[in-house]
Amino acid sequence: MPTFFDQFITDALGSDVFAAGIGLGLFGLVAALLRRGFGRLSRLALRRAGASLELDNRSAAYRHLMLWMEQNGVFTRARHVRLTDDRWAKGTHGYAPAPGRFWFIRRKTLCLLERDINEKARVGAAHNSRPMETIKLTVLFGKVSTLTGWIGEGRALAMQQDRIGPGLHILKQGYWEPLQDIPGRAIETVLVDDDRVQKVLEDMRWFYGAREWYAARGVPWRRGYLVYGPPGTGKSSLIRALATELSLDIASLDIGHDKLTDDDLREALIMAPKRALVAIEDIDAVFTNRESGEKRAGVSFSGLLNAIDGVAAQEGRALIMTTNHKEKLDPALIRPGRADLHVELGLIAPKTAARLFARFFPSHPALAVRFQDNLGEARSTPAAIQGWLLSHSTDPEEAATAKGLLGPRLGRIEAA
Prior knowledge:
The chain is an alpha/beta fold. It is built from 13 helices and 15 strands.
């Protein structure tokens, strides 16, 4: 038996084919060992020299990271991609690198995206489940703060995409509470007979970009607006439209609250949300003339003045005050520096009212002309006209008669 085995080995080694096979096998074994060793070394290097973050599609951060990568062109060089349900990554083009490893460079830094999809593991409700997806992002010689910063940028993108209008904040027990987004409004929907609304928008846009201008002149970077006029003329609508056009939030401040003190008001204006208009509506309902001594709030008149433009007043924000009765306000409250621009919103002419009719009934231009003619010389508030048109939204012929707007009992009309 040993003689046969020895003879077999001798004959095999003497065969060129067998010897070549052994050589290839040994080469493959060495290559596999080297590959495994390199893989371990690379993983060790990434673990020691890199910062990584892992998440799955159950987290909102998954969408935020996807948005950031797409916004920054990470996927543009991916040659193998797989579709991604846009309900999980809303706002993206619906694809990402295929499962596996994908290397890319961001600001001269080498980054690795590892993507794994488990078809057997499902997430979400049964009727709307999706495969579990895990992504791991590693930055070589980077920091975790870099990764979380990218997610933060993606979160800002998501908020901008999901935004339906300005965010509304109210002061609640010493802090500003964000409530919800309110529907946006175009500046053209605030009805006036001239271009005064457009000029307010241009002024406020200039203000928010004029930080260096104010600093060069040693002037506090603040600007105040007083919007006045009868009820129903669009004062609140103007605030919403300005915030919409400039992508600002609205910080609504009720200074008539009995428990609000001077210190509370000062701190509230100091801590007002960034990129937000501070709105104090119907200020005449709280403060009238200083000499009368009339005050119906926990905030004093001097406390209000100091909060608006005192030493500690916040810079980089616009303040809008509204009133139905400008004549009742103390001159100290509405002087330049506290209310730099005064804007009156009044009753509108029939020609302007016809623009609103055309917006309600765009396919009936002839009726808009008839509506204007039927109004004659009468002027009315935008709110009254809108109410009439809403009540006849399915009957443009009846709406064009303007009968309900001409009744003196409504108290809405003023002769030109």
